[in-house]
Amino acid sequence: QAKNVGGNSFQFFSCDLSKKQQHRLDIENRLRTAVDMGEFQLAFQPLIDLTTTRTVGVEALIRWPQADGSYISPGEFIPIAEETSLIIRIGTWVMKEALKALQRLHLQGFTHLQMAVNLAIGQLWQPGLVQDIVDFLKQLDIPPSALKVELTEGSLMSDVQRMEGIVQEFRRAEIEVAIDDFGTGYSSLARLRSLPITTLKIDRSFLFGTPDNQSAVKMVNTIRQMAESLGIQALAEGIETEEQWRMLQALGCPLGQGFYFAKPMAETALLERLSAEI
Ligand code: C2E
Ligand code: MG
Ligand code: MG
Ligand code: MG
Fold first, then answer.
1. Which atom of ligand 1 is nearest to the CA of 264?
2. pTM of this structure
3. What is the value of ipTM here, to two decimals?
């Protein structure tokens, strides 16, 4: 309570959590039970072959609906889960549900689809992570190459030696590895070259201003070229306009993702979309 105890104004402030801190604590507390209560959902955003505009895969994105019908964004609660190690339980749930959804998609005939799953850095230190995923893939009868794990550039550069080991472990298991939000971190090209990643996701901030702004276009193309020269597939994130798609197609960027093609959607909507593509 806002009471001045014995003239000690420091105590007054330290007892009074700011609105922001209260909100964060509230999220943290509710995150503790959210997996058990079945509160999370997955949305799926199509990954597009920019030449044919066909869906070649989907990215699983976690959703946390609230009682009032609103959603707390993963951009807000994933970092909190990371700080509190709740990320392990949440991340395990995401991987299992995403792979079960992929199995259903494959069983319905969409066997060409890949599933991309985001992994937070806090998940990567789990002993046996790769083996657990491999076992689960086997159990579901899904080829490992149908899974692509997305690691952010920041996490890949945090402990390079260890990350190299983990990426190699995924690749030995034939699981694909994407570097997410590329361009927002500080990776050296030498380090990038030493990682056997399969896809480079160009952060959507690089599409701002394109195609009108020539230097923005050049920047995107430089990243795309670098990926190509390393034998890595480039995927442009955040394509919002037809003009951006046409520009990327002209530059020869193989893959993309964005609201222009499709927003993240529920599995039923995804199935409808996929059926319409046949
Ligand atoms: P991300 O992995 O880079 O995912 C792409 C984000 O960009 C998604 O936001 C997606 O809805 C959004 N997006 C896609 N296309 C467009 C576009 O054309 N325009 C704009 N403005 N946005 C677009 P979302 O779902 O809010 O996720 C935000 C971030 O939260 C993700 O970024 C990822 O870092 C994290 N995240 C989401 N789900 C998970 C998860 O299951 N596990 C982990 N560890 N992180 C997750
Ligand atoms: Mg991602
Ligand atoms: Mg991304
Ligand atoms: Mg992003």
1. 11
2. 0.94
3. 0.99
